[in-house]
Amino acid sequence: MELSELNKIFQNYQGKEEEVIPILQDVQEKHGYLSSEYMEEVAKFISVPKSRIFGIATFYAQFRFKPRGEKHIMVCRGTACHVKGANPILDEIKNILEIEEGETTKNKKYSLETVACIGACSLAPCIMINNEVKANLTAAKIRIILK
Predict the structure, then answer these.
(1) Element at 26 (helix H, strand E)
(2) Is the pLDDT of residue 1 over 70?
(3) Are 85 and 123 members of one domain?
(4) Element holding 95 (H helix, E strand)
């Protein structure tokens, strides 16, 4: 995202501190994550120290500080998925992609995170790739899905 695009976002706001969260949400929506550079620009726009913006952004789980992959994988770690084998599923994904939780592959194709629940407990264990649920998984099914 160019700084000109960031300025377009700022045009929707008055530069008040109470607008920080919606501004950060808009920046993340447009850019995909909150880079250090963009958080610094938000701090300048709001006229607060950059540490204040970083503090707000890091407090909320909704904000990301690394780019997501083209295919973002969320492994459900809810009770049903845990009991039915979420850990081996997660381990298999990490082995195949050669990344850890919270990382993105070098080619930016995949990113991986765990979530508390994706709301598909009757289909456990399951994952979401972008917005698509993959259900009743096994390590063998993961290998097929990620080919």
Answers:
(1) helix 20-31
(2) no
(3) yes
(4) helix 86-97
Q: Which domain holds residue 104?
A: 71-145
Q: What are phi and psi of 111, to 5 degrees?
A: -130, 160
Question: Domain containing 123 — which CATH number?
Answer: 3.40.30.10
Torsion angle, CA of 47/49/51/57, rounded to 10 degrees?
A: -10
Q: What is the pLDDT of residues 6-29, one digit of tens each?
A: 999 999 999 999 999 999 999 999
Helix, strand, coil shares of the chain as percentages rounded to 5? 50, 15, 40
HSE-up of 29 (CA within 13 Å, CB side)? 7
* pLDDT one-digit tens code per residue, 94-116: 999 999 998 999 999 999 999 99
Rounded CA separation 35/127 (Å)? 27
End-to-end CA distance of the chain: 31
Residue 65: inside a domain: no
Instruction: Examine residue 121 and state whether it is found in any structural domain, yes or no.
Output: yes
